[in-house]
């Protein structure tokens, strides 16, 4: 869209058409393009227009609302497949949970961004390949590779969604960072939608209970099961048609929680030595340790995505740099514990998957930390940090492919 905006600066009608076609994408691309357009009367006018954020909520066109409604209905129907086709729930949901939530989002961005036929064909082929693979996976009791495939298949679909969002396999740092920002905004708005839905559920069930009608079974089997997959789709629609809706919330959350998480991590590392917990011997503790690592790493990356957009001051950069250093320490402890367990008890699918993930995370964190300290030393700016994150995202995607599709073959589906 950036090139389209640049080429239509002489044509106000076409600029208006581009804006109404995809307001969120237009605003992001125009904001990144404006520094080089400053001084152009039409560009200055659009900059001021986009800076003004009215209080009204835009609901888009009837066609968009119809698309969202049909997509949400289809997602609910997919969730009801075990009932419709008599499939065992224990078989269906672990393998196909991602195919309930992601196809509507893929369809939405493919339609909204007007992807080419070739790109749509690639997205469909990748999605169908994952769908077929996971559902023909042998139903082996207590299969570690099945659990790993089911978990990483969701990340694989998340990568496909990123490809759909970006619209190209070429390296475009700004679009990839925009995808991370979208995920942050989506988490915020979907959480609010689910909280509101939970309150509505409690009120509805309570009111019907007062008049002697027990609708719990019907409500959960039809209303909730259709509402849950619709929540991220509705959240996506709201964030894309109303960029201002949570555009100021996500940076505040990132700015608020980064120092708090830094303090918590430092205290936590000190507390480990007094608690007697040993990640080298305690498997459950090691798993929780890695979950903490992934959560903190995600916070760092989302914070950098927001910070690089807004070019915040040195305090925020110092917080992110220190948080990255502490996270590297946490990662190193987890990595040494995994290597110790492999040397003592041999390689298993779970240990190899965690080992590979921790190595990738460590390398990424080291690169990000180096760039952050370069920013502090005024040798570069935050856009370089964003570029490192954007460059590294496809590497995680490749790893999800390896774990999802190749691990079962390497380990005989065990």
Automatic annotation (TrEMBL):
Keywords for this protein: Membrane, Transmembrane, Transmembrane helix
Transmembrane segments: 65-85, 92-111, 117-138, 145-166, 186-208, 220-240, 252-273, 285-305, 317-340, 352-377, 389-413
Name this protein carries in UniProt: DUF4153 domain-containing protein
Organism listed in the record: Siphonobacter curvatus
Species classification: Bacteria, Pseudomonadati, Bacteroidota, Cytophagia, Cytophagales
């Amino acid at each position: 869209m950036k090139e389209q905006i640049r080429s239509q600066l002489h044509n106000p009608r076409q600029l208006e058409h581009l804006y109404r076609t995809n307001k969120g994408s237009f605003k992001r691309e125009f904001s990144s393009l404006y520094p080089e357009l400053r001084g152009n009367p039409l560009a200055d006018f659009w900059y001021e227009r986009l800076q003004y954020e009215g209080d009204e909520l835009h609901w888009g066109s009837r066609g968009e609302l119809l698309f969202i409604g049909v997509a949400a209905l289809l997602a609910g129907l997919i969730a009801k497949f075990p009932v419709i086709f008599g499939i065992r729930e224990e078989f269906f949901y672990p393998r196909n949970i991602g195919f309930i939530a992601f196809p509507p989002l893929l369809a939405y961005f493919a339609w909204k961004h007007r992807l080419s036929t070739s790109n749509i064909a690639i997205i469909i082929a990748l999605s169908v390949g994952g769908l077929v693979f996971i559902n023909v996976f042998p139903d082996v009791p207590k299969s570690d590779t099945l659990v790993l495939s089911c978990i990483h298949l969701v990340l694989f679909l998340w990568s496909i969604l990123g490809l759909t969002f970006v619209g190209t396999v070429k390296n475009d740092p700004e679009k990839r960072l925009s995808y991370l920002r979208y995920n942050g905004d989506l988490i915020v708005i979907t959480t609010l939608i689910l909280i509101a839905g939970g309150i509505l559920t409690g009120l509805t069930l309570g009111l019907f209970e007062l008049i002697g009608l027990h609708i719990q079974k019907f409500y959960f089997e039809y209303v909730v099961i259709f509402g849950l997959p619709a929540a991220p789709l509705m959240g996506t629609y709201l964030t894309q048609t109303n960029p201002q809706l949570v555009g100021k919330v996500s940076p505040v959350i990132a700015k608020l929680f980064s120092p708090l998480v830094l303090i918590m991590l430092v205290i936590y590392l000190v507390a480990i030595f007094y608690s007697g917990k040993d990640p080298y011997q305690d498997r459950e503790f090691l798993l929780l340790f890695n979950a903490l690592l992934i959560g903190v790493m995600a916070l760092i990356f989302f914070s950098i995505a927001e910070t690089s957009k807004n070019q915040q001051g040195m305090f925020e950069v110092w917080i992110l740099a220190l948080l990255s250093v502490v996270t590297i320490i946490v990662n190193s402890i987890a990595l040494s514990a995994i290597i110790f367990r492999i040397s003592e008890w041999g390689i298993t699918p779970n240990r190899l998957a965690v080992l590979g993930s921790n190595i990738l995370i460590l390398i990424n964190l080291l690169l990000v930390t180096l760039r952050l300290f370069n920013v502090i030393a005024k040798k570069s700016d935050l856009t370089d940090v964003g570029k490192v994150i954007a460059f590294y995202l496809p590497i995680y995607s490749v790893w999800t492919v390896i774990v999802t599709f190749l691990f079962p073959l390497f380990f005989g589906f065990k």
